Prior knowledge:
The chain is of the alpha+beta class. The chain folds into four domains: about 10-185, Topoisomerase II, domain 5, CATH 3.90.199.10; about 245-325, Gyrase A, domain 2 (2-Layer Sandwich); about 355-480, Orthogonal Bundle (Topoisomerase, domain 3); about 505-805, DNA gyrase/topoisomerase IV, subunit A, C-terminal (Neuraminidase, 6 Propeller). It contains 18 helices and 41 strands. It has a four-stranded mixed β-sheet. A four-stranded antiparallel β-sheet has the order 10-11-13-12, covered by helices on one side. Strand 34 and strand 35 (about 720-725) form a beta hairpin. Helix 3 (about 70-80) packs across helix 4 and helix 12 crosses helix 18. The termini are far apart. Residues about 525-530 and about 805-815 have low confidence and may be disordered.
Amino acid sequence: xxxxxxxxxxxxxxxxxxxxxxxxxxxxxxxxxxxxxxxxxxxxxxxxxxxxxxxxxxxxxxxxxxxxxxxxxxxxxxxxxxxxxxxxxxxxxxxxxxxxxxxxxxxxxxxxxxxxxxxxxxxxxxxxxxxxxxxxxxxxxxxxxxxxxxxxxxxxxxxxxxxxxxxxxxxxxxxxxxxxxxxxxxxxxxxxxxxxxxxxxxxxxxxxxxxxxxxxxxxxxxxxxxxxxxxxxxxxxxxxxxxxxxxxxxxxxxxxxxxxxxxxxxxxxxxxxxxxxxxxxxxxxxxxxxxxxxxxxxxxxxxxxxxxxxxxxxxxxxxxxxxxxxxxxxxxxxxxxxxxxxxxxxxxxxxxxxxxxxxxxxxxxxxxxxxxxxxxxxxxxxxxxxxxxxxxxxxxxxxxxxxxxxxxxxxxxxxxxxxxxxxxxxxxxxxxxxxxxxxxxxxxxxxxxxxxxxxxxxxxxxxxxxxxxxxxxxxxxxxxxxxxxxxxxxxxxxxxxxxxxxxxxxxxxxxxxxxxxxxxxxxxxxxxxxxxxxxxxxxxxxxxxxxxxxxxxxxxxxxxxxxxxxxxxxxxxxxxxxxxxxxxxxxxxxxxxxxxxxxxxxxxxxxxxxxxxxxxxxxxxxxxxxxxxxxxxxxxxxxxxxxxxxxxxxxxxxxxxxxxxxxxxxxxxxxxxxxxxxxxxxxxxxxxxxxxxxxxxxxxxxxxxxxxxxxxxxxxxxxxxxxxxxxxxxxxxxxxxxxxxxxxxxxxxxxxxxxxxxxxxxxxxxxxxxxxxxxxxxxxxxxxxxxxxxxxxxxxxxxxxxxxxxxxxxxxxxxx
Length: 816
């Protein structure tokens, strides 16, 4: 083989240098020539070539549609040397009203749908320009923009369109180049025009001032922008993320059922895939409470119907839909465009200013063109005037000439016509020349002179040019402007776990050995006094249900330990495991010290500083602390009160600071005194004496008195109601008075509650039985009595706990 290294035409090049140079050339070709829009007309080369090709073909809005195949062929043959599929896809997108806020192509036939259906083949569809697209091409034949040779140099194409429409903002743009991307959302035409006019009149306007006219994007599919923070960030810096949310309403159905109807979805979300995703979530039990899902969309509009099961909370289901599907989506804004041949990220003001600068240049070039044409016409009219003044002689010269050149030379020599004037006269037939109307020529001459003066005046004044831009923009708004479709919610809150959980009342039970669970109040049917109850928790033989109370799923639960520490947990974090299950060990939910047991649980909705937590121990010590002192417990808990080694915390209640307090003991004593006798203390304090106890006695209950009566329950299932008035008021620290006559038949007192006749109570036994009964079944009797049987107990069983059941929408005594 010959040695090619000696060829003088070959130069050695390092392969890494050649690869680097070739890749940079490729990258710039993609950036400038394909993927990114021009900041002036908002178009990529492919879009610009399609619009220009259709304009060249005469496919105006007042003409009939023609086959898209012919348009694609024209574009590929003359301007765009790429695949027909890419060109057709670009054409289709400009005709889709769910993609373009203001479509630039009027399509006829199947151009796809919001369900992701593909368009028909280009041999079936037809297209022409819209009236708005014509505004982008207006004056293109007046030398308003530069033209460059096409790929084969057989013709030329515009490097940018002389658009009157601020298209980059109005219709937006999206594209991925090499190492960069753009994602500009569409906006409302009227709002963009208002902002452009304001910037034109106030060049020093800030982005925030412009946002008074453009509050945010306006998507063709409507829906909501949830939160304006991302909009402000994007308009100020060129980058930002906004949250889109579907428009959904809740409609009432028969039998107290509801349905969610979605009429608008976020921009560029595929409706068919959205419905499929919802169906998958329902099928996989990840989305509950939905009985039916169907698409009722038609030519009148979108309508996705989601029917709910009876009793389901529509707000919770909707929040779950927002969290798990594209009914809530995000849109990342990147204001990146080609500006003076270079890609750069701009803010809102720079984007508008670039369009206005382009319009100023287009108007200047258009007026220079119009001025030149007017001066040429004026020159011709001057020739006509002179010809009319010597019409007979002009005709004689023309008739007497042997040919056209001779006639032109004689006219120029005799009347000093210019070449253009002589040619214009000779281009007219003798009949036309003899019919020239002197008055009409003078009128046109005067009009042309006026036009020239106006054009020269505008060209000499930037303010006059601005007036022309404003007039064109306001005319554009008047003709094509419409109402905003996308509603903006200024302040958006993130969907929390509470938003996806129904706010309903729960029965929370805790066993002696520390197992906790929750179940809806509605799960426990009401029984008459004396019934056997139902299984409420499965426990081991040595375990028994010790504590029961009612709280909402959105409440906080403060867990107070016997040693005086408090831990914090949400109700919905407590497992819901059914009435017969034992629940979950509290030690797995809280960070408790070894041997530490829960003494009391308190449901709290808000930490109101005007409220207090009143704590009582089995040794009769009582303490009051402001509620807001417990608002921020640490992971391992915080101190609630100091407890002596031979004492333990028994009860915790919420007070308003001016209530009356009742302490009741196991041996049937009770004391009533004013809460004001207990001053507020810090969390670390030990408290003061609330009641003097007899030998072997201890406090079993502490209640805040407001209205109703005192319910006392004994270990053998006996109970009674006693009017509050029968407990005389004394001072704290006393021995108290008789509350219940304790005997072997009744057993010791296990609990006291303040109740009203409309209340219901839950009684839990040590073997896990639960009975629910109305208070009106328990008659009101005196203090020094044994009471009546509330529940029949089996051998070895005893009452462990009692709690008042509060129906939904009523105040919960243990929560605030």
